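Chapter summary example.
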Amino acid sequence: MNSTDKKQIQLHKMELDEKYLSRKLTEIIMNNQIIRSNLKRYKNKFKVKDKKKLFILEKALIKILAINRRTLRLLIQSDFIECNDLFGVSLFTVKDIEYFLNTTIKKHRN
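The structure predicted for these 110 residues follows.
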């Protein structure tokens, strides 16, 4: 296998990832109300004055968004969601997740 074959395989994987991510984004948009209620329930669980600074662990985010690790990895790579890595633990802020939900809905409507 030479370098051109490896590049073609890599490009093919990237195309498949893009198709997969677009399909999952439409699913996230369709389940928007459920996701927002899950996020609201998560915020009410913790007694924090500023809910925008609340952090979410990776496993909790996967449950809230109803996605899998591959989708989350693609969202991070595509810069839809910002990941804060602290000693090997992936953390996400509620503010970033709410911003992601708002922007994906706006893009879908247009």
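To summarize the output: The first strand starts at residue 55 and ends at 57.
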